[in-house]
Amino acid sequence: MSHWIKIDIKENWRTGLKHSPPLAAVSEKDRPLYLAARPGDILWFYAIRPVRGIVGFAKIEKKYKDEKKLIFLPELRMRKVLFPLRFRLSDIHAGDYKTWIDSHINIGDFKLDWTVEFQPLLDEHSKKLIRRAE
Fold first, then answer.
1. Quick one: pLDDT at residue 70?
2. How many Cβ atoms sit within 10 Å of the Cβ of residue 93?
3. Rounded to an integer, what distance in angstroms lies between the CA atom of residue 97 and that of residue 78?
4. Within 13 A of 63's CA, how many CA atoms are on the CB side?
5. Positive or negative CA dihedral for 101, 103, 104, 109?
6. 62 CA to centre of own chain
7. Alpha-carbon distances, residue 82 vs 85, 116, 117, 127, 129 (angstroms)
8. Residue 97 confidence (pLDDT)
């Protein structure tokens, strides 16, 4: 089982987790990494604007492509699908979005490439995150 991190704005996390079924999504530029992610892998939710930290995690249940349904705020604004590569999520662990600013997990010490929105986590980072989330 691999661990992945998805960096996105708070509003997109809120929207995706409230969606039925809950989901996350990435753009076509992340296709190679999207293809490497597997059902059963863990996806960590990193929220930005105004939060800067991990606000939850879930198991990737299924992967699928949707080029028709607009879900996220940037898609609604532009009236086109920007994130067609989608993950259906299960076993979600995320507190109420209203508490995310105060209760997120700081991972500034991980030295990630913050310009990459979807990326695998090193085993060492996954273990640290699991400990911090307990």
1. 98
2. 13
3. 25
4. 14
5. positive
6. 14
7. 9, 16, 13, 32, 29
8. 86
Look-up: residue for tokens 């299924």? Answer: 62
Using an 8 Å Cβ cutoff, are 41 and 4 in contact? yes
Q: Would you say 16 and 25 are in contact if contact means Cβ atoms under 8 Å apart?
A: yes
Residues in the chain: 134
pLDDT at 95: 86
Q: Among candidates 69, 52, 59, 60, which has minimal Cα distance to 10? A: 52
Q: For the chain, what are the domain ranges?
A: 3-133
Prediction pTM value? 0.95
Nearest in space to 64 (alpha carbons), one of 46, 45, 39 = 39
The CATH number of the structural domain formed by 3-133 is 3.10.590.10
Look up residue 83 and give its two tokens.
């994130």
d(CA 12, CA 47): 9
Closest to 5 in 3D by CA, of 74, 80, 72, 58: 58
Residue ranges in the chain whose pLDDT is less than 50: none
Res 36: pLDDT = 98
- Is the CB of residue 3 less than 8 Å from the CB of residue 129? yes
Tokens matching residue 35: 């293809």
